[in-house]
Amino acid sequence: MLYNASSWQYKKIKKTFIATLFMFELDILFKIRxxxxxxxxxxxxxxxxxxxxLMIGDSGVGKSSLLLSFTTDAFEDLSPTIGVxxxxxxxxxxxxxxxxxxxxxxxxxxxxxxxxxxxxxxxGIILVYDVTRRDTFTNLSDxxxxxxxxxxxxxxxxxxxxxxxxxxxxxxxxxxxEGIDFAREYGCLFTECSAKTxxxxxxxxxxxxxKILDTPSLLADGSKGVRNNIFKDRPPQSDASTSSxx
Length: 246
What we know:
Its main location: membrane. The chain is α/β, with parallel strands linked by helices.
């Protein structure tokens, strides 16, 4: 079907195409920057295992703030992530030195076709919701759990459900029991935390990593022999307070 250049259909298609092309190019640039950063850091510190962790959830739930709080011990009110971002954190668990590559994905719908490839190879996925926003909790089952089923390539991937912003207790609309029930239904670890006050932030990531270390198939994925595969994926070219394991 041909559209007149002045028609609203043509303008809409053109706008969508330009936006998609821009995001694809932005995504490619990110991958180049990411791989370069990993190459530069690969020889600076020895480690036994490399684990890829992915953070997902609606825009504005505090994924980037949680990541910043964990990796730098700081808190900032951040703008929504564009496409995908990442941080690297070295930790020691027992006698093992670990390198965590933590991917922070955008929650906006327009970025999902580009970020779907980042599920590939993830040993751990952190699902974040805002305890003061009911819709961010509802979307866990309506959107995010379905994306995990569709895109995750590790059937033993460990999932951690995180209710963020417990520092705003007076504005809470999602109860802790609801979080526990969801975690039990979907087979997740669970905790509530605050990126702002850092309550349970460290424990959230540490418990997830400990569970990965306790899963033989994921441990093999993180070994030195296959660790480079985590960074070789390419994006598609088409359009609680006390944690518990359930």
